[in-house]
Amino acid sequence: MSFDYGLSSTEQLYESNIQEQWDWLLYPVNHHYHFGIKGPSSNIFENAIYQNVFPFIKYNSRVLDGGCGWGGPAEMLTKYKKCKVTAVSNSHGQIDHIKKRRQGIRALKKDLNTFAPLRSYDVALFYESLCHVQKSERILKKISRRTKNLLIIDHISVETPYYNPYWMMQFETLDGLCKKVERVGYKIQYAADLNFGKYLVPSSLYWKKRLEGIPYKTGQFAVLEESVNMWLDDPESFLKQNGLGLVYASR
Length: 251
Known about the structure:
β2 (84-89), α5 (92-101) and β3 form a beta-alpha-beta unit. By secondary structure, this protein is α/β, with parallel strands linked by helices. α8 (197-211) packs across α9. The radius of gyration is 17 Å and the shape is globular. The protein has helices spanning 10-15, 19-26, 44-52, 72-80, 92-101, 136-144, 174-183, 197-211, 219-233, 235-241; strands spanning 62-66, 84-89, 105-109, 121-127, 147-157, 162-164, 169-171, 187-193, 242-250.
């Protein structure tokens, strides 16, 4: 990507478009904003939660959802697994959305870079969000003092760690992510490359179609549109460098 979108923080990244635009983009998929995969549900983004989150989180768990987005995964955990979820985001729009439209979720407007949990949890979930944290090992250390288990689904680099300034994301290798988790006191129970290719094209096609209904893209939507076009034009090249990994760990 080649443009300067004038965004200097992850908060601005998600506050750079108005609520009506976000609703247009995400309403048909219950405001899930992460990569999805084909499966039993017509909502490909829900399939990703069924496949990658539900097997690792028990019924009635106390869950900390760090970087919760618009609360799609949190609502599914609350509704289908009867979990007690605390959702954390640095976006006013996302937190307002959860408070107004999601039931039974405790929503906190906090920056993960400085957040320190005061309550204890059975599991902390980072769904495509830890890569946005500037010093992720620091937050994991704070989380480890209050949380028994850790579930991370995140974007990874296939070979060498790198930083993408347009998305404000740090891409670790899967091995590097596992070592980071171990250094803060967790023991890896399961780690896997999720085969990002199965997620990339279906998700990109959905976003591309919805973005066509927004005539002039700014902020996050400009970043997303350029990314989607790149992913669909040459997915093979993108997948040589980027992946999606899962790490589940306990202490």
